[in-house]
From TrEMBL:
Keyword Hydrolase among record annotations: yes
Name of the protein: Histidine triad nucleotide-binding protein 3-like
Family stated for the protein in its record: Belongs to the peptidase A1 family.
The species this protein was found in: Hibiscus syriacus (Rose of Sharon)
UniProt cross-references to InterPro entries, sorted A to Z: Pepsin-like_plant, PEPTIDASE_A1, Peptidase_aspartic_dom_sf, Plant_Aspart_Prot_A1, TAXi_C, TAXi_N
GO terms assigned for molecular function: aspartic-type endopeptidase activity
Chain segments annotated as transmembrane: 35-63
């Protein structure tokens, strides 16, 4: 079980040829005294040898970083203690939000009403500009390809019942500048339009359009449809500083003054040139070509949910080898190309085992067609896993066959939580294991019991008696016709707890390995 810890400081490590000073591979215990520049990153280090290296081998102290470069950051769960009123309310709002987010990704369900809860997402903090802004906390989202945040003055429509933003709307710093309409990043934000159209939208003079010179005109506002809402924003450039670690100059982000149903901004980690990994990759491939996170298991415990989970940019296997740690074996599966949703991390799902019985997945989960339908999206922003109706019903039938013969169904709890099947039981019950079988590997990813079976005390048996209840936490996403034009399934972050999930962008693979996530912090203290 993960032990509560104080919020760890982020750390950065890299190696160079002149020295093997391992102090660079440790979390700094005191405020660093030196600065060394790596590509366009400002890196805090403790060794004066870095100064010598920079001065002797670089101009203006620019340093090429080796393949061991990496950086850790804490991810914070956004659930507050005020949301832990009753298990029924918490599960209902969370399951409703998971369903809403999933269905928003299919063109037939763009009018699904948004729930009244921000749900269970993880946040990453940073600052912008010079002088730097107050710390900004935004949702980490592997299903989005853009970094955007609320900017002052800010208006959120249909947000009266939503939780307030995690940070106050940003006041742009003196160092911020508007992205010109001829910029390639402007074209990326307006991906459905030809770049010359952007000059016309920005009202560039005709002779400027003919000369393809609209750099003095700002990129026009763009509309962005997100899984839980939408926004209108403009693109700006400014310096991005991740806590105590590194700074990225000319970082591009969306500044939203008006949103619909979405008061909180997003750090997009999906494919696309405007995502955070893509912008890191342009100046440091070692950081931008791979990232992973390890979500600490919390089971909706109000104390455990506050423990920060590590987000890792770059590779850390070399460090673990140096420390003599056992190298963890990952189960890898290939990413699938999605022509309609190119920023999703889609993988093929071959089937799901309930106990020893393997239930094959429908064909549309094994691949993505030309319309963008099918596959399973690995998503940090959706809480519970969503499955197509045919697979979900087969899994539930097998699960109920093994559990329902011994325990009474808790139908009232099912109605009030949005989850099923749920069961009453008097003492610890045995439930069959759940294993996901992804394309390209034979071992599968076996979920810990707490990742798919939530247990709590309930008084909903009709007579007020407190009883133990357990609910399966996989959800019905709808039939195949309803899911056309979008992902066939989503692997939610609740089912990813206790795993390090690796997104290898260079080799286009996603990997899973069971970890004690807090040990990833511990392993770098020695």
């Amino acid at each position: 079980m993960d032990n509560p810890r104080n919020k760890p400081e982020p750390l950065i490590s890299f190696s160079y040829d002149l020295t093997t000073n391992l102090s660079l591979l440790r979390k700094p215990k005191t405020k660093p005294k030196g600065l060394c520049f790596s590509c366009s990153f400002q890196v805090m280090v403790v060794s004066p040898l870095c100064w010598l290296y920079c001065l002797l081998f670089s101009t203006w102290w620019w340093l090429t970083v080796s393949t061991s470069e990496m950086v850790f950051f804490p991810l914070t769960h956004s659930l507050s203690k005020t949301q832990f009123t009753t298990p029924h309310h918490l599960l209902k709002t969370t399951s409703a939000r998971s369903a809403s987010r999933f269905r928003h990704r299919h063109h037939r369900h763009k009018q699904v009403p948004l729930p009244l809860s921000p749900g269970s997402d993880y946040t990453l903090s940073f600052t912008l500009g010079s002088p730097s802004s107050p710390t900004i906390s935004l949702y980490l989202d592997t299903g989005s390809d853009l970094v955007w945040l609320p900017c002052s003055p800010f208006e959120c429509i249909l947000c009266e019942s939503k939780a307030p933003p995690l940070s106050p709307p940003l006041n742009l710093s003196a160092s911020a500048s508007a992205v010109p309409c001829k910029s390639s990043t402007c074209s990326a934000a307006h991906s459905s339009l030809h770049s010359s159209d952007l000059c016309a939208i920005a009202r560039c003079p005709l002779d400027y359009i003919e000369m393809s010179d609209c750099n003095s005109y700002p990129c026009p506002p763009f509309y962005y449809a997100y899984g839980d809402g939408s926004l209108i924003a403009r693109l700006y450039k400014d310096s991005l500083t991740l806590p105590n670690s590194l700074s990225v100059q000319n970082f591009t982000f969306g500044c939203a003054h008006t949103t619909l149903g979405e008061p909180v901004g997003v750090v997009g980690f999906g494919f696309g040139r405007l995502s955070l990994p893509a912008q890191l990759s342009s100046v440091s491939p070692q950081l931008g070509n791979r990232f992973s996170y390890c979500l600490i298991s919390h089971s909706f415990d109000s104390d455990k949910v506050r423990i920060p989970s590590p987000l890792i940019l770059g590779r850390h296997e070399d460090k673990e080898k140096q420390l003599g740690n056992k190298i963890v074996q990952f189960v890898y599966t290939d990413m699938l190309s999605n022509p309609k949703h190119p920023y999703f991390y889609s993988v093929g799902l071959e089937g799901i085992s309930v106990g020893k019985r393997k239930i094959p997945a429908p064909e549309n989960l094994k691949r993505v067609d030309r319309r963008g339908s099918g596959g399973m999206v690995v998503d940090s922003g959706t809480t519970f896993t969503m499955l197509p109706a045919s697979l979900y019903e087969s899994v539930v039938a097998e699960f109920d066959h093994r559990v329902g013969r011994y325990y009474k169904r808790a139908s009232e709890v099912e109605d009030s939580t949005g989850l099923n099947p749920c069961y009453f039981y008097d003492k610890v019950t045995k439930v069959p294991g759940i294993t996901f079988h992804f394309a390209g590997n034979e071992s599968g990813v076996a979920l810990p019991r707490r990742n798919y079976f939530y247990e709590f005390m309930d008084g909903g048996d009709g007579v007020g008696k407190k009883r133990n209840v357990g609910c399966m936490m996989l959800m019905n996403g709808g039939d195949e016709e309803e899911l056309s034009g979008g992902p066939g399934a989503t692997l939610g972050n609740y089912q990813q707890q206790g795993f390090e999930v690796v997104y290898d962008l260079e080799n286009r693979k996603v990997g899973f390995a069971r970890r004690k996530c807090s040990s990833l912090w511990d392993s770098f203290e020695n």
